[in-house]
Amino acid sequence: MSALRRKFGDDYQVVTTSSSGSGFHQQQAAAAAPRRKRQRFVDKNGRCNVQHGNLGSETSRYLSDLFTTLVDLKWRWNLFIFILTYTVAWLFMASMWWLIAYMRGDLNKAHDDNYTPCVANVYNFPSAFLFFIETEATIGYGYRYITDKCPEGIILFLFQSILGSIVDAFLIGCMFIKMSQPKKRAETLMFSEHAVISMRDGKLTLMFRVGNLRNSHMVSAQIRCKLLKSRQTPEGEFLPLDQLELDVGFSTGADQLFLVSPLTICHVIDAKSPFYDLSQRSMQTEQFEIVVILEGIVETTGMTCQARTSYTEDEVLWGHRFFPVISLEEGFFKVDYSQFHATFEVPTPPYSVKEQEEMLLMSSPLIAPAVSNSKERNNSIECLDGLDDISTKIPSKLQKMTGREDFPKKLLRMSSTTSEKAYSFGDLPMKLQRISSVPGNSEEKLVSKTTKMMSDPMSQSVADLPPKLQKLSGGGGGRMEGKLPPKLRKMNSDRFT
User: Which residues is 15 bridged to in the sheet?
Assistant: First the structure.
């Protein structure tokens, strides 16, 4: 038996396979496998679940930015480094003062009134340590002091002052920055426990809620959303935790928040959204994580604050809406934070936006005329192609006698255009249809133009006759043939044929 474990970010299952290949045992093992908790990329409190490993020689980069490294450490390590640094510095400087007193022999002559030591009343190491503390902390009890007979003591005193200032600036500055970090300010910025999907303004919308518990405002507050989802490219490359941007009003400025009261952030699901083909049924099998990032400047300190949270697929409620939390009281607006996370169900179509658009296109009445127009055009083109084939089969003598080989083809094209116009009139608005139905429009002009073209050869042939024959022809075509002599009748018939 061999166990194949499939794990990536989310839950995983263990599937046992054997050489005998029993499918029933595989299904049983998969069903009995425990479903573990969803592994998040960003926790609800904003902490990122990322650990950096196998850095190798890159760890030296942390020492190059020692101040930021100390600030990023946890409080227990900061306090340990703070106490350790001061203790080592004090012991080192106390040892230097004791060493000067020992080399000068002040320890043996400390009680001699006629001897002037480097530091008065320093007899041993504890007294040297007390002298350093009194000097460094500027306590100055007045019992221990440095004399002018010790140049090496003066130099050590200057070095002590410079080193003490550097240590104070580094450690106290690190602790001050650590205490004034705006991370705790993010604790008073709230996000709703769930995100919801429902209709708003006739569009399917993903929504979640943010709030500020403090009276101090967040200056220039801005919100961003990222969709983390694994995918595979057409080239076969697997991209774990691929980041996609969710538009929450960047183009309209809706991402710039005036965060005085709780606000509902909206992402409209359209053709540009990554959730374009997300439906209520497909959401049960999808695995994604929505990371929300809220940034702003703390009004009291002027420092930039960032609050983060995330929503997994099981924290997105389909067909829900948030309860209203703002009510008007006497002279002010009241925010009820007890309903901040509460939602209620609303009628919402279970289909994705893509499926809704496809169903709307299939049910649209404008599709039938378009389809019929395309069929009519295809039929007219096939008829014209058939006439071309027939005209090629007619003997050359008959083609010469007709004189116009393309005449039937032109008539069919004219008829096809008129039929297309008839179908296109149905697609026009009512006003344009009324205008097109007025007599004397393009269709009647087209018919009169064709009749005129047909009568032009006859009128031209009559105009070519002698004046006497024109007078005979003025009574009509049928009378003219009856009054002409046989020779002229024969000549006229030959002329017209």
Answer: 4
